[in-house]
């Protein structure tokens, strides 16, 4: 099935992937060039894993997971496969986020720095908890074949809304964290003099904002939505409707109509065959 405005979609998709990838590269350059690198020894080198993993997992990979249903070349794939890819990308992002949180708390505890006192930490931990809760509920309700169709239909709008809300809040938390780190590392007077690190990291923040804006635009265009799949047929003894393997309601009125049509077309053929056989027998 052709997508409306395919060239526009492709241009925005390439732009989003490029900006998101640049965000990850800028984060790596920041910690490797300006912040002395990476390590896992309780020092600031261990803390540097926090921005790298957050931008890579919580921003870049989460954005890809959000728009994966919009890719037109995946529309021929089964819905179950796309659900698995969607959940898998979010799971990878969640793992990276958890590791980044461990690096922060380990660094703070090693240097006796208080935990959870800033607005960045409050917003950040809250959105991490909501993200993991969203992932777990999404797997149990939409991926595993346990939840009834009525529950899926009820939860789906909230699932979509909360996913976008979480993604937007993540971007806000990342921007707060970048600013907080620059204020600590450069102190307020140094930051105000436009040092190279400050300008470079501010550019990183702008890239993250642009990436988020592109993802929001792609995912909110109705003409780029994945087409609905045709209903699958599962027969039941009582002739009623049953939920298909991918959560689709089945309408058996079409099945009855098509069967009656086939029967009506087949009836004259049967009579002709009977007449032909009788004629052959009489001739013989």
TrEMBL record:
Which GO cellular component does the record give, naming just one?
A: apical plasma membrane
Q: What is its main location?
A: membrane
Extract the Gene3D superfamilies matched here: 1.20.120.1770
Regions crossing the membrane: 12-32, 52-73, 85-105, 125-147, 159-179, 199-219
Q: Report keywords, A-Z.
A: Cell membrane, Electron transport, Heme, Iron, Membrane, Metal-binding, Oxidoreductase, Translocase, Transmembrane, Transmembrane helix, Transport
Region labeled Disordered — which residues? 255-284
Cell compartments where the protein resides:
Apical cell membrane
Q: Which InterPro entries match?
A: CYB561/CYBRD1-like (IPR043205), Cyt_b561/ferric_Rdtase_TM (IPR006593)
Enzyme class, one word? translocase
Assembly, in brief, is:
Homodimer.
Q: What is this protein called?
A: Plasma membrane ascorbate-dependent reductase CYBRD1
The species this protein belongs to is Ursus maritimus
**Originating gene:** LOC103659560
């Amino acid at each position: 099935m052709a997508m409306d405005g395919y060239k526009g979609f492709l241009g925005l998709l390439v732009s989003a992937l490029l900006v998101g990838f640049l965000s990850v590269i800028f984060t790596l350059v920041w910690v490797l060039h300006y912040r002395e690198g990476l390590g896992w020894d309780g020092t600031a080198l261990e803390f540097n894993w926090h921005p790298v993993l957050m931008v890579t997992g919580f921003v870049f990979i989460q954005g890809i997971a959000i728009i994966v249903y919009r890719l037109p070349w995946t529309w021929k794939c089964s819905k179950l496969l796309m659900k698995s890819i969607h959940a898998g990308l979010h799971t990878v992002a969640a793992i990276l986020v958890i590791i980044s949180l461990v690096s922060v708390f380990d660094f703070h505890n090693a240097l006796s720095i208080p935990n959870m006192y800033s607005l960045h930490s409050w917003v950040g931990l809250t959105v991490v908890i909501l993200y993991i809760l969203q992932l777990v509920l999404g797997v149990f309700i939409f991926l595993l074949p346990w939840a009834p169709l009525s529950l899926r239909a009820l939860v789906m709008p909230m699932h979509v809304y909360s996913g976008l809300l979480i993604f937007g809040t993540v971007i806000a938390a990342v921007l707060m964290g970048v600013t907080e780190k620059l204020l600590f590392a450069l102190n307020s007077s140094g930051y105000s003099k436009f040092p190279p690190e400050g300008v470079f990291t501010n550019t990183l923040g702008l890239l993250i904002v642009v990436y988020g804006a592109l993802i929001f635009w792609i995912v909110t265009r109705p003409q780029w939505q994945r087409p609905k799949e045709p209903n699958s047929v599962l027969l039941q003894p009582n002739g009623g409707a049953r939920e298909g393997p991918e959560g689709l309601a089945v309408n058996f009125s079409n099945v009855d109509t098509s069967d009656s049509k086939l029967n009506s077309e087949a009836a004259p053929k049967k009579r002709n065959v009977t007449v032909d056989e009788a004629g052959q027998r009489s001739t013989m």
